[in-house]
Design brief:
- The protein is an alpha/beta fold.
- It has 3 domains: 82 residues, Four Helix Bundle (Hemerythrin (Met), subunit A) (Up-down Bundle), CATH 1.20.120; 194 residues, P-loop containing nucleotide triphosphate hydrolases (Rossmann fold); 148 residues, 434 Repressor (Amino-terminal Domain).
- It contains 20 helices and 10 strands.
- The strands form 2 sheets. An 8-stranded mixed β-sheet has the order 5-4-6-1-7-8-9-10, with helices on both faces.
- Helix 14 runs antiparallel to helix 17.
- The protein is globular, with a radius of gyration of 25 Å.
- The protein starts with a helix and ends with a helix.
- The structure holds guanosine-5'-diphosphate (GDP) and magnesium ion.
- The site of magnesium ion has 5 residues, from helix 5.
Length: 455
């Protein structure tokens, strides 16, 4: 991945104060390769690298950073921007603000995940997940209908999905015309005061005119407030052509990137965003109906870069602190050394130095923040200080060999830190959890770990 690739060149360039043509050339080559490895389409990569180069040249290299780290910072920032960071905080929201029913039209190739995503969105809206201007707007009354009259059992599939989602299903049959189905459903939704109507459509295996004409006609008839392009992240490079075809045919309002729980590195996100110019709104992260998440530009940038948490730690750390600690940790992860209590302590120290726990936790990959969210807001800093107290009460040997810490040592440490033994135990348990994650991360990389966590 990119972090690994760059770290090799990074070391050779210490002590230079500016990013220059000469010291960035090799690194930019690595950025290019890393993006291609992540399945970003070639023209998109070219444009991106040119942008990074333009932004990076002449940039000052702050404090103890190497030009390599500074460049990673530029790459990360630019990638986040391109993923939609420039669209503002509300870009991932669905817009439903109109005279109900708000119609959502689903478009995409066969197998991209339209029907599944219809169910996911229906559930999300019915359960009150909808957010407007950053605030939840409450549970919606949702109707779904299938205009897929071609694929055997497509209508039946949506019926099943709707039942699972706990939303109403408008029956349709394979001998109806898609437009008639849509018209009936819209009429029904109006008369029964539905907030939202989601229209699932047919997809073909390739892009063809018949398909495009049909969905254009549906669009004209339904006048949807959202037209979502559903695309399989595993499409990789091919995502570009598919996105282009749908974007040319329809006024898309947003993109749903599915199957991100697989091996896809997320490069398709960048390609699709670049080609359509439309915001990515959601990602699909499992076959199950709960497997839908709002899109986070930053997280996706990190996925493409690989090793997100370390990278953003380095980034956050630029201003405040101890870049070296983060680097050591990153190096340690790569080298295969065991993550011990000393590493745990320096991580905690960094959190404290950074002050803003909230923003730091957000930067961590989802599975970390889940564990970390048990430490809630205001309590966080206090807890960090207590954990540090416990760690400081240990000897160097104990920190590097945590398995030595048995009952009598625990009592001594607890007394030294002025806490109960249970608190020492709790901290050790948290440490072990973190250690297990680090191990996983080293072994299989993020994608594998995300799968494992996602169940
Ligand atoms: P459609 O032809 O566009 O309607 O696609 P479907 O909704 O029928 O999905 C095709 C296949 O992809 C099904 O087996 C789904 O279970 C699967 N699928 C859809 N979304 C996701 C996802 O986010 N993750 C995973 N792992 N599978 C998905
Ligand atoms: Mg379908």
């Amino acid at each position: 991945n990119l972090t690994a690739r760059l770290s090799r060149v990074v070391k050779t360039l210490k002590g230079e104060a500016r990013l220059t043509e000469a010291n960035t050339q090799e690194m930019l080559r690595e950025v290019r390769l890393a993006l291609l490895e992540a399945d970003v389409a070639l023209p998109v990569v070219r444009e991106f690298v040119a942008r990074v180069k333009e932004k990076a040249l002449g940039e000052d290299v702050a404090g103890s950073l190497t030009p390599g780290q500074a460049l990673v910072g530029v790459v990360h920032k630019e990638l986040t921007t391109l993923m939609g960071g420039d669209l503002g905080p509300n870009a991932t929201e669905l817009s439903l603000a109109q005279q109900p029913p708000a119609v959502i039209l689903m478009a995409g190739l066969q197998g991209s995940g339209k029907t599944t995503t219809t169910g996911k969105l229906a559930r999300w809206l019915a359960e009150g997940g909808h957010v407007q201007n950053g605030r939840k707007t409450g549970k919606k009354k949702v109707l779904v209908v299938s205009a897929d009259v071609y694929r055997p059992a497509a209508i039946e599939q949506l019926k099943t999905v709707a039942a699972q989602a706990g939303v109403d299903f408008m029956p349709s049959t394979a001998d109806q015309k898609p437009e008639d189905i849509a018209r009936n459903a819209l009429d029904h939704a109006r008369r029964h005061h539905y907030d939202v109507l989601i229209v699932d459509t047919a997809g073909r295996l390739g892009i063809d005119e018949v398909l495009m004409n049909e969905i254009r006609a549906l669009h004209a008839l339904l006048n949807p407030i959202e037209t979502l392009f559903v695309v399989d992240a595993m499409l990789g490079q091919d995502a570009v052509n598919v996105a282009k075809a749908f974007n040319d045919a329809l006024p898309l309002t947003g993109v749903v990137l599915t199957k991100l729980d697989g091996d896809a590195r997320g490069g398709a996100a960048l390609s699709v965003r670049q080609i359509t110019g439309k915001p990515l709104k959601f990602v699909g992260v499992s076959e199950k109906l709960a497997g839908l998440e709002p899109f986070h530009p930053e997280r996706m940038a990190q996925r493409v870069l690989g090793m997100g948490d370390i990278l953003s730690l380095v980034e956050e750390a630029q201003r405040a602190i101890d870049v070296d600690e983060a680097q050591k940790l990153a190096a340690k992860l790569k080298s295969g050394d065991r993550f011990d209590l000393n590493d745990f302590r320096s991580q905690i120290a960094q959190m404290k130095n950074l002050g803003d726990m909230g923003s730091l936790l957000e930067k961590l990959p989802a599975q970390f923040s889940q564990a970390a969210s048990q430490i809630d807001g205001k309590q966080a800093n206090k807890q960090v200080r207590r954990m540090e107290g416990i760690l400081n009460a240990m000897t160097e040997l104990e920190r590097s060999k945590p398995e030595l810490i048995k009952a009598s040592r625990k009592r001594r440490i607890a007394t030294g830190a002025g806490v109960q033994v249970q608190e020492v135990n709790r901290m050790l348990a948290q440490f072990e959890q973190m250690q297990a994650m680090m191990k996983q991360m080293k072994k299989g990389g993020m994608a594998k770990m995300m799968r494992a966590m996602g169940g």
